[in-house]
Amino acid sequence: MSTPFDFPTCIAKWTGLENTAYHIQRLSDSYTNNTVRVLFKTPTDLFNKLPGGGGEGGRTLDHDPASVILKHAPPYLATDPSQPLSVARQTTEATALALLAGHLTLPCGVVQDPHKVGDIKRILERFPMIQIPKVIHHDKEDNVLWLSDLGGNTGPVARVLVSDGGGKGWSAERVEGVRNVGKQLGSFLAEFFDATRGLSESVVAEMESLSKEYTGGAWDGSVDMLKRILEENGIGDAEELGEVVRRDFEETKLTGRAGGDLGSEHKEANQSEDECLGMVDFWPGSVIVDPDVSVCGLVDWEYFGRSRESSELGMFVAHVHIVGALPTSSEEGSRRLQDFASGILRGYGGKKAALSTRGPTDIGFQRKFFVSYARELINETDMYKAELDEASSKHLIETGVSLLRHVEGAGLSGARVEVGDGWLRDVISCWFVENT
């Protein structure tokens, strides 16, 4: 019988430090993995203590860190041990972060095209506000990633923005900063998604191979969950609406198999401009900010793989909508989070226009955005069950149902998908306006 994992043993194995030399802070927002921040009592020379010179692609730290992030991947969902989950997700994250850091040779062994290797890193350099963790060491024996810490005062964007401002309050200047950071993130995402379409076919194939080990049945499971929730709530066309979502998933799978392969070898010939490599599980928990909203980090890359830009954004905005519907969220806090999401969409839309590529103004893009949005609104009522009251849950489900019905109708008639009143219309209105 194997010895249960514990962080102090893992830390001692690599650094020789006793547990009196550091403090462990458990990060409660971790969902898939067990994640902690290790705060050293004195800065620690990890460069000489860890294999590989402190990083799989060379030295990743230019100083002895005062803290690091450790992510342990158990062979199941950290928040629900009854759900098995392959530890291959950790290799996916290590590979994704190496890709972002501009490493020529990736942890999976694939060597990138030397002419393309720095493309994504150069995009990050143009957006210094956007921060990505660096891999310090990948402990494959214990399935632990040692990552650089983006800051002890950072937190998930939803939690930070719906708070009282950490005692500082929310001045007009700080709120404007929220919009600006959102816009920077949206602009970055547009360039980042575009760059992933130029990656070599071998890189794309490896990312797909890794992610298939633990996402193979996720799409079917998502459709089944949606139909179950709709049936439990007395939605008579639950089966039909489930098929709208299933068809959307099938289109993505079909595009991946024929006529739309990612990778530079196919880019000009037959590639969809919406198809990309992305975080896949892109929600407010993937975005961390500091209290001043001057730093924005993107974390948790373990699902990185084939995706669509429309689906990535639809999922994120759906979670913003859900957080706003929580009885514990104040109107002002919800508005700040919505301002952040609006900034993302405006920045993204403006950058897509500058890149002269189809995006939010494309009808097909909008439909896929709304399918992703609707699916998350409905399915995540399960995830937020403990926080939602009955009325809020019902509202979210009804909104998702309405969107799916609109998508189905628009799909038959060729018309644009119309959205409801209030924030839902507000937040994407920029997509329907030229030169926004």
From TrEMBL:
<dbReference type="InterPro" id="IPR011009">
    <property type="entry name" value="Kinase-like_dom_sf"/>
</dbReference>
<protein>
    <submittedName>
        <fullName>Uncharacterized protein</fullName>
    </submittedName>
</protein>
